[in-house]
Amino acid sequence: MSTTDYKTMTTAEIRADFLHFFEEKGCKLYASSSLIPEDPSLLLANAGMNQFKEYYQGTKTMREIGATSCQKCLRTNDIDNIGDARHLSFFEMLGNFSFGGYSKADAIAWAYEFITSPEHLGLPKDRLYMTVYENDDEAIELWHSHGVEYDHISRLGEEDNFWAAGPTGPCGPCSEIYFDQGPEFEGDAPGDDGDRYLEFWNLVFTQYDRQEDGSMPDLPHRNIDTGMGLERIAAIMQHKGSNYEGDVMRSLISLGEKLSGVEYHASSDSTDKSLRILADHSRAVTFMIGDGILPSNEGRGYVLRRLLRRAVYHGRLLGIQGAFLTTYAHEVTEVLGDQYTALVENQSLIDGIISAEESRFGATLNAGENMLDAELDKLGEGATLSGEVAFKLHDTYGFPIDLTREIAEAAGHCVDMDAFDQAMTEQKERARQSANRDAWGKANNVWAALSDKLASTEFCGYDSDDVDGCKVVALVVDGVEAERVEAGQKVEVVLDKTSFYGEMGGQVGDTGTLAADGAKLRVLDAKMREGGFVAHEAEVTEGSLALGDVVSASVDHGRRELIRRNHTATHLLDAALKAVLGDHVKQAGSLVTSERLRFDFTHFEAVTPEEVARVEGMVNAHIFAAEPIVTKVMGIEEAKASGAVALFGEKYGDTVRVVSTGDGDAPFSRELCGGTHARNTAELGFFKIVSESSVGSNARRIEAVTAAGAIQYVDERLAQMDEVAAALKCRPADVLERVEQLKDEKSAVEKKLKAAMVGGSSNQVADAVSGAVDMGSYKLVVAKLQGIGGKDLRNVWDTVRDKIQDECAVVIASDADGKVGLLAAATDGAVSAGFSAGSVIKEISGLVGGRGGGRPNMAQAGGQDASGIDAALDAAKKLLGA
Prior knowledge:
By secondary structure, the chain is an alpha+beta fold. It holds the Pfam family DHHA1.
């Protein structure tokens, strides 16, 4: 079978051809959604269907006959298999979808046309095989009607050819398309474990809604969901036998060859696997950070950290020296940046996060190695390292099991892999149960249902706090639509237009009142709901309100004015942070209330006091310059071209609002924003940063106040200063000088106290010396002391040695506020007589919950269990024969 009997296409050509093909069929082209899914039940976007969930459920209707997309996807449920010929963590999924718009017959016809037509893939028909669900005769006849021979169509069971969202919810039969790679590959039939018959496109005919009792009524309309792995079809179209041989992945493997000096397919299987893992993980890491995911110890941040660390480890295995992952990130951007512009826009952030994590993992590896060394020291010769310890190293330190085994084997120990695998299995099962919790649920979301029959709420609150003539278009009580509400009831009111801002983008919702003839409602909050509805969370205080009533909407003016000011301050703060710290700064979250503002941003270390002062001064300079806040409505592309800052993961329409400080061509701040703002920076009064803190390994938080909040903050601080000055009996201006004076006095007193406790005049030390035991060649002092810190024990030893003035040794334990200090020390003569300080400390430190060691003439340890001091000293006496 020839491998050159069809044409060759690049990954970019395949992607463009697929999307254009289905656009011409009438499908709407959708851009890939972020790897951070809107669906809170999903950790990461893992399929093209994710962004179309509500269309599948029938709660929203698409006007076009269908959709097509190339979706960024990330899956790590089989991370241990990544690096073989097939498995990837990050991949691109080509898809076409229908939600009642086109039929199963159309889907099959178009799929066959795309893969066989010379204008498109042009794959040889005799090398194509189809599988269908075991009782799906309709699919068999549809394929056969296009010329597919019956012996190229096979039936597979539910495990292979029936898709379900979960135990309940949308489901239906599948039909998969396979390509025969030739007899040089193992495999006997489509669907087996071999690589000869390679599945590259799955057509899912989602038509049922499985219930808890097992019944499967039809969905409101039949759906089509197809997914073609771009890397897999690229390998086929480039006459390669593996996902990693296509042009995109091969470019990353070539980079690994260059950095490591090893040659792909010329060394060992383990070396090839490391090169593939580096290629895969580096691409995944780059895309995740580009979509705003930051490393953490939970959720998607943990997935990112795990992939990044695994990549670093395999780089070490290949012998790559120093930091190297940003080089991979640049290659990913070079190859895929044209298609995914977020990679280019966020290059500095990607570089900064990767560099910081790579450096941090170096320290983590060292900590893991120290723990592993300590555990190995406890083992007898040839003993097995516990699988629980190996799992803790993996789970807590991110320490790869391969590295644990390698180090253990070098020390003469093996690892209990059965126990390790059991712990891993239990962790995966916990993760699986969490991830599978009714991911689709029931198709009864009231807001999704409303979006199908009502237009979104018109917001009229940019220029006015009060709007009359607002029609009640929906009333929602406890998640259910209502016709009327009475006094005393709580309700979510939806109007056709409103002056209330619904909580969104970090800005809290407005409060105020709704009033109609015979009805009054107190609005406690306003939320932005699915479908673009502003839900006025209100309590009916008088009368009743019904659908169709007309109300006047009045926002609490004073509260909104303070919110406006704090929102504008976040824009100024964002711009100032970029100016002072660098372009890698990205907003990672915010909260704008009437009292204060909170701003989270990406940064890799604490902001210094000098930097905080520069940021604060820069913001205040623009406030004092009294610059107008200019808002313009423009197309999204025009806005981006103007340099307007867009937020991670935020979805923007074709038309956007751009908010700038100043009306010049190069304003200090320019952002895409739908919130409410001050009209002039001078309205902010002044800006004061009240705290700077960490909210993760690569994110910082600044809290600040403006206007009335800033005045209140300063007043409170001045009052506190007055109280401190009164307590110190000095003027406020002299507080610092008085505090320094008190510190000096305290230090002097502490020195005198310490000298009294550990010096020659100390009763404790004198009592200890008087109880010295004559060991023949030296005198031994074993004593328990109170109130002396571990770092002062050496001074005690000096005092004992001066008092005895002969060959001597000590074993001292101290208890200071529950913290234990141990010290063993000896003169040269005592050491010659057999005293070993290091051996004593190593033997007894575990009894106080500590570890330690040292030289024969001096050793120390610390501990946390003061209740073990007596036992430790008794053990020392027994060891020394005293």
